[in-house]
Amino acid sequence: MLLIIATLTPVLSIDLFPRVNACCPSPGGGYYFLTVVPASTQEGNTVNLVLTVTGASGGTLYQFRFLAKNPASVTFQSPLENYTTLVGQTQFSKSVAFPSSSFPGSDSLLGQYAASVDLVSPIASPSVATSSFFINILDSSEHERTQTVSVQATGYNASESVSVVIQAQTTSIIVFSQTTSASPGGIVTASWDIPVNATIDTYVVTVSGTSTFKTPPDVQHFAVNPATLSVATITLFKSTYQRTDTMHFSFQPNYPDGTLPSTGVGLLTLTAPSGARVTLTATYDSNAQTFNASYTTAVTNQTGTWTVTLGARAYSDAYGNTGPGASMANTPRLVPATLALNVTTNTSIAVGQQLRFNTTVAYPDGTMFPQSGTVRAYLLYSGTPTINDSVPMVFDTTLGFWVGSYTARSSDTGGLWSLVVKASDSATPADTGTAIRAITIQNNPPTSFPLYYFGIVAAIIAGLLIAAFLVFKRRKVTHARLKIDLEAVHSEAGRIESSEFFKSVRDQVRKEREE
Q: Cα(417)–Cα(90) distance, rounded to whole angstroms?
């Protein structure tokens, strides 16, 4: 154990960010900066050593040699790297990859590597820039629950049997153990999916071969932290609600691995336009796999834009994993309620008859309209002239609805009328509603005697005359007979003229002429 601690002490104390060392102006002129990208990577991967030169001389050949020293103090160096500046050029960069064919070496040892650059030309100057980088066997020194720990180690013999063990540092409980074979290139890989309820602790991963023994050994620590769940948005079931509606909100947290939680609660804060706040508890809906909360608005609620907020870490599952990482919000609107009016009435009345109607009024949630509200009715005739009669309404406490009546007058124009019922409460702005019913008032004067009846009478008389004439022509009757027939026709015409029907027609014509 002391050997492991002594070995890991320099590893755990390193700076995982690239360190840049810019020396004073070298004899060759200019300033030199060395940066390693990435500053930390796993065994078997490459890093880029990037040298940046400022204040360089134009039209000059620069030659450099890059060096890397591993934790076992073995130094690797690159071939000479050349760069010739243009006339007037004062800045340039040069980059090499380690390990690579142009910069051979090995990064199979865990720990801190020292990097440096020697200037060879125009004037030799060693270590004009220095930096460092770290080679490890883990993809990260910190993980969250549900993430995957990736292990990669190199430098083992082909097909060598290698064990990978992960255990909690505090309890020494082994949470992962696997024996695998190294690849033909001597690479060993393994992965551990951190459980959602894993103990929050520092863990130790150990990679050990059966024939390969490294100094320092492949042993590294990493931390397991609570998961930070992400939330894309707070979903509104509707963007606009009416007073007495129930606002519904939902959100869906995601663990770092993309899975969905099924435990815990979230706290939403709903803020009215006035600044008044109410806290809502969002619970899990197994069907939708979301966390839902609701708020039933009241008639007295202020209309306008409301804000529902899920604060940072305002959701927590049963294991202490929280989210989201930052606060988020959405903005539903609350508008005055549109009241629902149900009007029952007879639809046709004559002069002197009563139009009887009753009305029930309800809010969107079904709550009945209070007696203190205002309900009015109007009878409208849109013809000529336009008529707008107000009809009083009162609340019948026994029946539980508003009632009204109207008696048709002889002065009312007959035809199609509209019964308009309106309701409003005392809220600011008021909640309102309107209902319209079609009503027929029968008030038409007696119909005038149609003039075409005179045509019918005239046609009958003409027909009788023509019939008499034909009889006279065909039978060549005597003058006496003709006289008798004419007298018969005259008699028949007199009978028709004296009939009640003809008298009625005559009187009607005389009346219309007088008018």
A: 93
* Contacts with 83 (C-beta within 8 Å, 6 or more apart), sequence order: 61, 62, 64, 92, 94
Q: HSE of 140 in the Cβ direction (CA atoms, 13 Å)?
A: 10
Q: How many angstroms separate the CA atoms of 248 and 126, rounded?
A: 70
Paired sense of beta strands 290-296 and 246-251, if any: antiparallel
pLDDT band at 453 (very low <50, low <70, confident <90, very high): low
- In terms of Cα–Cα distance, which of 259, 263, 251 is closest to 194? 259
Helix (H) or strand (E) holding 165: strand 161-168
E strand or H helix at 2? helix 2-12
**Whether the predicted pLDDT of 274 surpasses 70:** yes
Angle between helices 452-475 and 500-514 (to 10 degrees): 130
Between CA 457 and CA 460 the distance in angstroms is: 5
Instruction: Report the DSSP beta bridge partners of residue 452.
Output: none
**Residue among 92, 117, 123, 118 at smallest CA distance from 27:** 123
Cα→Cα distances 494→479, 481, 490, 498, Å: 22, 20, 6, 6
Instruction: Respond yes or no on whether the N-terminal peptide bond of residue 392 is cis (omega within 30° of 0).
Output: no
Q: Is 220 exposed, middle or buried (0-12, 13-18, 19+ CB in 10 A)?
A: buried
Cis bond leading into 364, ω under 30°? no
Q: Are 216 and 190 in contact (CB under 8 A)?
A: no
pLDDT in tens, 467-503: 666 655 555 444 444 344 545 545 555 555 555 545 5
The reported pLDDT for the residue numbered 449 is 47
Question: What pTM does this model have?
Answer: 0.74
d(CA 298, CA 243): 6
The number of C-alpha atoms within 13 Å of 296 and in the hemisphere containing its C-beta is 6
**Neighbouring residues of 480: CB distance < 8 A, sequence distance ≥ 6:** none
| Residue 343: closest CA among 255, 398, 420, 272 | 420
pLDDT of the residue at 232 = 97
The conformational region for residue 302 under phi > 0 = left, psi -120 to 50 = alpha, else beta, is beta
Neighbour tally for 373: CB within 10 Å: 18
Angle between helices 479-498 and 500-514 (to 10 degrees): 60
> Does residue 32 contact residue 119 with C-beta atoms inside 8 Å?
yes
Q: Minimal CA–CA distance to 30: which of 49, 50, 58?
A: 58
Candidates 268, 240, 271; CA nearest to 338 is: 240
Alpha-carbon distances of 455 from 448, 460, 502, 503, rounded to whole Å: 16, 9, 12, 15
Contacts 24+ apart (CB under 8 A), 448-451: 448/508, 448/512, 449/504, 449/505, 449/508
